[in-house]
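Module 6 notes. Inverse folding takes a fixed backbone as the condition and produces residue identities as the prediction. Think of it as a translation problem where the source language is geometry and the target language is the twenty amino acids. Below is one complete input and output pair. Work through it position by position during the lab.
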């Protein structure tokens, strides 16, 4: 039997966490996003130390929130500010773009 936590840890490490971290590191070369890079690194450590699914889900939620917070730093555009994630239906242009991108990615 493979432990469910191990499966979830692998999923986090090799899917969205890795993508988010790479994306933030990429933009860190152009802007000072080091605090976000460090937070994502901390979350990755927490995933590796995760004891149960609930703890891993909490780490995932915090990492996702950090990733969305960095949008305003990356975009630096008054027309595309991120306040909070909304879906079904998305409440603004940026959330619509996120939902559309997720649809293309996951379906």
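Target side of the pair, the amino acids:
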């Amino acid at each position: 039997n493979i432990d469910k936590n191990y499966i979830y840890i692998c999923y986090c490490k090799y899917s969205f966490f890795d993508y988010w971290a790479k994306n933030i590191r990429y933009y860190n070369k152009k802007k000072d996003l080091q605090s976000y890079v460090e937070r994502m690194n901390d979350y990755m450590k927490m995933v590796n130390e995760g004891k149960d699914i609930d703890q891993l889900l909490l780490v995932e939620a915090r990492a996702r929130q950090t990733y969305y917070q960095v949008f305003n730093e990356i975009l630096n555009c008054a027309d595309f500010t991120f306040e909070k994630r909304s879906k079904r239906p998305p409440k603004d242009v940026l959330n619509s773009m996120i939902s559309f991108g997720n649809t293309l990615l996951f379906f």
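Reference fact for the lab report: The chain is about 70% helix and 0% strand.
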